[in-house]
Amino acid sequence: MAVKLPIYMDNHATTPVDPRVVEAMLPYLTDNFGNAASRNHVFGWTAEAGVEQAREQVASLIGAKAKEIVWTSGATESDNLAIIGAARFNEKKGKHIVTSVIEHKAVLDSCHYLEKEGWEVTYVQVGDDGLVKPEDVEAALRPDTVLCSIMLANNEIGTVQPIAAIGAICRANKVIFHCDAVQGIGRLPFDVNEMNVDMVSISAHKMYGPKGIGALYVRRGRPRFRIDPLIHGGGHERGMRSGTLAVHQIVALGKAAELAEHELASGGVEKQRALRDRLWAGLQGRLSHLYTNGSMDARLPNNLNVSFAFVEGEALMMAIKDVAVSSGSACTSASLEPSYVLRALGVDEELAHTSIRFGVGRFTTEDEVDYVVNLVSDKVTWLREMSPLWEMVQEGIDLKSIQWAAH
Amino acid sequence: MAYSDKLLDHYNNPRNMGALDKASDDVGTGLVGAPACGDVMKLQLKIDDKGIIEDAKFKTFGCGSAIASSSLVTEMVKGKTVEFASGISNADIAEELNLPPVKIHCSVLAEDAIKAAIADYERKQKQ
Lengths: 407, 127
Prior knowledge:
Order of helices and strands of chain B: HEEEHHHH
Number of domains of chain B: 1
CATH class of chain B: Alpha Beta
Helix content of chain B: 40-55%
CATH topology of chain B: Sufe protein. Chain: A
Number of strands of chain A: 13
Strand content of chain A: 5-15%
Distance between the termini of chain A: 46 Å
Strand content of chain B: 15-25%
Number of strands of chain B: 3
Shape of chain A: globular
Helix content of chain A: 25-40%
Largest sheet of chain B: 3 strands, antiparallel
Strand order of the largest sheet of chain B: 1-2-3
Structural class of chain A: alpha/beta
Oligomer: heterodimer
Radius of gyration of chain B: 14 Å
């Protein structure tokens, strides 16, 4: 079995650009270099045509209309624009926002920013399955709630939230509903009308497009609402996001959306699910004391987040250096704090330190999965031989009975 | 994170990994750290009646720096006196492995492990 190293299994961090996407975008860096806002010559018209085709492609993927797509520099900007923009425009109605504790930092930090401006934010908890309960969102709504923001799928544990149900609650209560769908778009079917969403954040580089480009879906028509821009200038994107359009990147995002729609329809995503399941079954066949983090049912098809008890995550990542994954361990973060997502699920801190996130992707192969199963199993076994905790457990000592000196 | 070659060598080829008989009178065992903090070190020193450290073994749950720090410590103390071992500071360990600032606590833990192992040995000798 010849496997090319290194192996990329960190597709929640970013995805490789699909070669077909590269092919689609390249002409817009050379011959078709025009400014899409140039209305009076063929260079501008060609660029504009590329941009508008991409708008159709992205809209088609999520069941939206092309005019509802606003280009941004990526999902962080989309989240900021959605939350701060909707809050500012609608603050006469009230100054209260509802979100969840496991949102992406781009959502949480936008909320923290508004808190400094006098807004109140309710952070809904999740269960130990990593899921938001719609009734908890409903209970958090107040007469002065303007906006609710809940992610489609979590970037660490891959849990998929009941967006349609939460959206229905928001709609009934006349609350604007934003969904950071970055991790789920292209991996799950998603229709803005079925999901009852008003705004959706999308990123190209999580769906086999390039970095530096994203989109925000902003519903037009009923229920009517508007948002304030964050970036001011030439009035591009119907005034919601000024700045010369990055035509080649937009064309790339459009192509990536077209490919994602095709992949969803043709079983490509199910292939990823089968690979993920093969990975999990393989690891379970070789190792004991494994714990998945978050619901295995309501979960992205390509995500596996598992704690390898008694083996610290960063040490394991060093041991499998030819395989790219991520860890919720404190030792991999600048803050030396374990993952806030795992803590929100109530995962024991000692297990949080042992968590590894695998994300298979469009280009992952069975041979790669089998290689990773063998390598990870060998290295976990090696590190457990080195672990005093593993030794104590083998001797029948209950680790919880020991008075550890925290440091 | 960029680690020094020496650290990577100790991590990839740990020296003196294993266990000594913790019930034996001439073996001192130090167990420091906490699972919730992400690192636990067990250092064992076998000490002869002249106060020379004949053997040292470690087991560590922790990141690469913690494993390398404990491996290094076993090398530093083997064949040395208890007095020498108790004089090893975390700065010695951090410097030797060129630990990045966020990993200094690993060397502190390794220093604590030496002191805890010696204290355990001395307690046994008094009994």
